[in-house]
Amino acid sequence: MVNYSLNQTLDMTALIIIYIIGLILNILMFSSVYSDLKDEGKMSVKRLLLLLLAVVFSFVTWLVVLGYLAVQFFRNMRK
Fold first, then answer.
1. Average pLDDT for residues 40-68, to the nearest whole number?
2. CA–CA separation, 50 vs 8, rounded Å?
3. Could you tell me if 51 and 30 are in contact, meaning their C-beta atoms sit under 8 angstroms apart?
4. What is the 3-state secondary structure of 39-58?
């Protein structure tokens, strides 16, 4: 059982690292698209909201997945 818990901990650590990398990539993509639209003079409130919603929805998706995995981790720890 100790190996199983250690493997789960390593899996959770890997997922958190992947999450952080994904978050950084989202921010970089947002800033790239934002600066391109702003430089071209095509930035409008509508486009800004769409960009922000895309980043927020991506962030929320990762939070839901990590929350689900955390719940599964703690359920397996009780067994």
1. 84
2. 36
3. yes
4. HHCCCCHHHHHHHHHHHHHH
pLDDT in tens, 2-25: 455 666 677 777 877 887 888 888
Domain count, the chain: 1
CA pair distance 73, 9, nearest whole angstrom: 8
Q: Model's pTM, two decimal places?
A: 0.57
Q: Where in the sequence is the domain holding 56, given as residue range(s)?
A: 2-78
Q: What's the token pair of residue 21?
A: 């990398």
Tokens read off for 15? 């997922």
The per-residue pLDDT for 1 is 45
Q: At what angle do helices 2-40 and 45-78 cross, to 10 degrees?
A: 180
